[in-house]
């Protein structure tokens, strides 16, 4: 919650109400800590490469405990999203497709592998052809960039 300062009496009443709601929520969930996100803590890596005749574009956004990865070519859009994380109950990998094709997609496979290797939550949008050799090549590129981040 960030307080907006506008100076009108009705806005102050709304802000006071939001303060009370925020305090009530904090009492209900004391175990949840929500540190402020500072822009300097978010790292973005953009990369491009070529596999045979297919161009590969990628953006990796690195947050404190998670990553957002978009993969595609120059004509791609955001057509699917998969998420993967390690379960705190039994250390297994949990994954799901949040948007797009709900079959076992390359994005979900990549998210699972990256979560397993890093222990972090990964959101992946994979907008490239479903070709196994291309997928392996993309994973190698990603691991190279992640090694730089974690070193």
Give Rg in angstroms: 20 Å
Kindly report the oligomeric state of this protein.
Answer: single chain
Average of pLDDT: 77
Counting helices, strands and paired strands, the structural category is alpha+beta
Q: Which term fits the overall shape?
A: globular
Number of distinct beta strands: 6
Spatially, the strands of the biggest sheet line up as 1-2-3-6-4-5
- SSE string: HEEEEEHEH
Major sheet details: 6 strands, mixed
Q: Percent range for helical residues?
A: 25-40%
**N-C termini distance:** 33 Å
Account of the 3D structure:
- The structure is a single chain.
- The protein has 151 residues and is an alpha+beta fold.
- It has 3 helices and 6 strands, in the order H-E-E-E-E-E-H-E-H.
- It has helices at residues 9-28, 106-118, 132-150, and strands spanning 43-51, 54-62, 66-72, 81-86, 93-99, 121-126.
- The protein has a 6-stranded mixed beta sheet with strand order 1-2-3-6-4-5, covered by helices on one side.
- Strand 4 and strand 5 form a beta hairpin.
- The two termini are 33 Å apart.
- Residues 1-34 have low confidence and may be disordered.
């Amino acid at each position: 919650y960030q307080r907006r300062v506008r100076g009108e009496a009705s806005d102050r009443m709304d802000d006071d109400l939001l303060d009370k709601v925020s305090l009530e929520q904090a009492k209900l969930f004391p175990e949840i800590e929500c540190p402020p996100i500072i822009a300097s803590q978010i790292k973005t890596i953009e990369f491009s490469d070529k596999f045979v005749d297919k161009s590969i574009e990628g953006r990796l956004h690195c947050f404190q405990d998670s990553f957002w990865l978009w993969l595609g070519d120059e004509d791609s859009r955001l057509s699917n999203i998969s998420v993967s994380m390690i379960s705190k109950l039994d250390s297994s990998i949990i994954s799901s497709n949040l948007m797009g094709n709900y079959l076992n997609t390359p994005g979900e496979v990549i998210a699972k592998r990256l979560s397993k290797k890093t222990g972090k939550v990964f959101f992946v949008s994979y907008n490239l052809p479903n070709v196994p050799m291309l997928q392996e090549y993309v994973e190698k590129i990603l691991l190279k960039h992640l090694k730089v981040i974690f070193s």
